[in-house]
Amino acid sequence: MQRLSIDTEMLIMALEDHSMEHGHYLDRKTGEVIMVPEGGLEDVDDDLAEVMENEPSRFEHIEPLPSSQGFQVMADFTDSLADSKAKRDLERALERPRPFRNFKDTLDSYPDLRDEWFRYHDRALKVVAEEWLKECRIEADLQPLASERVARASTAEEAAAAKKAADVLADIRGRGKGDAEGPAAPADLRYPIGEFKADASMAERKRRHHIQSLTEFPGRLREAVYGLSPEQLDTPYRPGGWTVRQVVHHLADSHMNSYIRMKLAVTEDQPTVKPYDEKRWAELEDARTAPLEFSLALVEALHKRWVMFLQSLQPADFARTFHHPASGIMSLDTALQYYMWHGRHHTAHITSLRQRMGWP
Fold first, then answer.
1. Which 3 state secondary structure label does DSSP give 248?
2. Cα–Cα distance, 16 to 64 (Å, whole number)
3. Sequential DSSP letters for 119-132
4. Which helix (H) or strand (E) holds 80?
5. What residue ranges do the domains of the chain occupy?
6. 204-357 adopts what CATH topology?
7. In sequence order, which residues have a C-beta less than 8 Å from that of residue 162 and are 6 or more positions away?
8. What pTM value is reported for the model?
9. Which of 26, 121, 188, 309 is the most exposed, fewest CB within 10 Å of its CB?
10. 257 and 274 in contact (C-beta within 8 Å)?
């Protein structure tokens, strides 16, 4: 079987893209890096959507690297520099809140160093990309980086074309695309990804996308809290809001309730489910002080059962309903959409707090 040839810059950009608006996949057959909007396959070219729906194992989801890994690359680059004003300025940038933004702004004052940083960054991330491919058991060759093509060019025309490609890539990065710190914090910190909006028409391919999101959620949550100190875990994500610790324990409480409600809806005729007071639950001792691992492990096990249950259902089952005394009648389709949003909503509370506070 012929080895894949993969666009290195595209794979690196996917690994560094922390946007909540889309995800990336690698086509194991062609080596192409594909961006899929958050709306799912409904927003993808029909031919590609059909292939992705019929051959899901062909497409490897590209999980963004943790921001701590991106921070380490910046720190290693700074350490590699000879003692100079530029090095000291970069060291100070990494020590202040919002280190990613500060690092990039500082580099803008040193154009020659900026070019050196991009070359260093690309070489470091190319190694990371190679390791990712090995972990996924994908046999592939990464195409030369733009900076490598400049160095290897045998003619002036080839060098000019490669240099132009490198400049375009640097310009994209200079505008902040793929910045691990993401966009500025929204005015309403309660809804960092916007409020929930149900989709009345749920196609099968979109339903599968939402179930896949539930599969990926435990890993995203664990990554969001990785490396946080006890003091940081007990920091409210907004003034008057829950702490990071309470948010994580709430996710376990809420998703357990939803799992049970869905099973009731499948096994009974429009059952009335019992609400719970999430605010009072969040103030209980375990929610305020328990180690995060209790709920992280619980969510991982719960989601395995939850996804297995959902994948066993027939399309008609998702029209089954339950009655919530406060929310009214809700179908499984709507509940599935809500909890896909719910996990991302609360994870964004944590990641946006990290960004605002400059925590790597």
1. helix
2. 5
3. HHHHHHHHHHHHHH
4. helix 67-80
5. 19-62, 67-174, 204-357
6. Four Helix Bundle (Hemerythrin (Met), subunit A) (1.20.120)
7. 146, 149, 150, 153
8. 0.57
9. 188
10. no
